Here is the input.
Amino acid sequence: MIIVLKSTATKEDSLLFKNKLEQEYGVKVNEWTGVESTVLGLIGDTTKIDIDYISAQDIVESVKRVQEPYKKANRKFHPDNTVISFDGGQKIGDGSLCIMAGPCSVESEEQLNGIAEKVKKSGATFLRGGAFKPRTSPYAFQGLKAEGLDLLKEARRVTGLPIVTEIMRVSHIDMFENVDVIQVGARNMQNFELLKELGKIDKPILLKRGLAATIEEFLMSAEYIMAGGNDKVILCERGIRTYETATRNTLDISAVPVLRKLTHLPIIVDPSHASGKSWLVEPLAMAAVAAGVDGLMIEVHNDPPHALSDGAQSLTPEQFDLVARRVFAMKKAYDEAMTIE
Here is the structure.
């Protein structure tokens, strides 16, 4: 249930009303104070609450029941966009366009630092890189693991870029204490035990959509993290599995505006995994910006033909520089277009 309070309601009025609801009905009440109004989101069994009675209260502007099973991720409960801030000044969700760029797999200090310096120069605001790599084949390169995490931290020290890397299991959480953004891969989107534990930490979680997940299932996975107390969730559309074989996956570009309507959480797109082909990264990235994303995740490798994983979808630093300049130009055009009435 969602209750919108009148603009004349004071903080004291809101607190008294909130306490009354929790004591009388046994529900949990989350409060969000926006620019123009205060919204109370009731979580729990609201079937016994009389809407007419709530509507009759002097401080109540409107009240309605929510049918969606996700509450904390629901925009109805949290009208304003969530903005996630970092110590270095980077922000996701504030209307700017962030780019997370770097190799699919961390291979060596020289490789990672060289790529990190180049993508930063081209405008990337985060360094992505895989230390632990889930692979379809058990014989494929599985990542440098703990050594890879150390190399990412060193690259952050050198460049100042916050690091984004994927976690595989609950037992690894302590190893990720100094990682800036923990990524949950598509295969782990419904690893609910992992999501519960990530909900207990105060760190941004980048949640990728599962290969065959519906948007509601995607948001319910985000809800698992948020239900644990961690509201710093970033949603990543990375393509879903369809009957089409021309691309590695099918980028569901429509998911961006749909998610924007349903949730307040930041949304990014990964055109590299969506396509599996480097020449498709630019047009898909441009389309994502035109759809209104908060950011992009792009794979960059200094020598794609000899990459230990996913070289076919990786851009060279020179190609990334061109793509970055074009998507930032697209972002500027998008912002200007959105002012047209």
Residues 84-337 form a domain with the TIM Barrel fold (CATH 3.20.20.70). The mean pLDDT is 94.
